[in-house]
Amino acid sequence: MRFYYPDTPDLPLPDGHRFPAEKYRLVRTFVQQERVLGRADLIPSPLAERKELLLAHDEIYLDDVLAGTIPPEIQRRIGLPWSPILADRSRRTVGGAIAAARAALADGVSGQLAGGTHHAHRGFGSGFCVFNDLAVAALTMLAEGAVRRVAIVDTDVHQGDGNAAILGPDPAVFVVSLHGEKNFPFRKVPSDLDIGLPDGTGDAAYLDALAGALDAVSRFRPDLVLYLSGADPLQQDALGRLALTHEGLMARDRAVLSMCRDRAIPVTVALGGGYCRPIGPTVMAYINTLRVTRDVFEL
Fold first, then answer.
1. Residue 31: which residues within 8 A CB-CB, separation 6 or more?
2. 133-145 pLDDT per residue, tens
3. What pTM, to 2 d.p., does this model score?
4. N or C: less crowded end of the chain, CB within 10 Å?
């Protein structure tokens, strides 16, 4: 079994910036020290190739990101200052998603200690997302003929508007988003199945809604599931507005991953958003997702 991580330094951000870039390093360190993923190998993510990125992104935008010439209005939408590290990490996050998809098709499960950049659109980034890793991975697997049908199960607390915008017209991809209805983005792009939840939704109501979403995914009969977990439905999350416990998030992960295992559907795991202050509960939620993955698939 193979899991991936972008082997880059923390993003250089100004003091007080609300994006907790250190969370990825903290997760990776804990996973390596505690062997959270059992016997699985942890591998640096490769760079996504230009031809892969162009499956989901406009050439002008791609070149602007790589050259550091992003127009100011798009840079503001992304919410992260440009740096060579940002450009490199963004390419590696997509490369890790593609590598994880290939590994899952071979081994049944894979993932990366990052990813879930679902607010990136074809011609612009948004909401801390530069390139859309899962959209590129889905379109790459379809273009290569590795699969005929892909489902994205997005349980990040923010609706995956970039996923919907890029993949919505494609009948070979089924995009599900389970999110806070009143949360960002405030102008949502319709997915194949959107389940918007009211502020304060707790474990029981959330898991009931998830069960309906998974029934729809099962009926689609995908050859591959790309699972964006997200730590931001956690009650303590600064940007979440839902009220899930750690136990509720683990039950969510177990439901998604067990469905894939029981139906022999290869699945990848991306960590998605998480913004607790301090960051400890977010890091623990990510680690719990990886623990559930290990246990469900007996890694």
1. 37, 42, 113, 287, 290
2. 999 999 999 999 9
3. 0.97
4. C
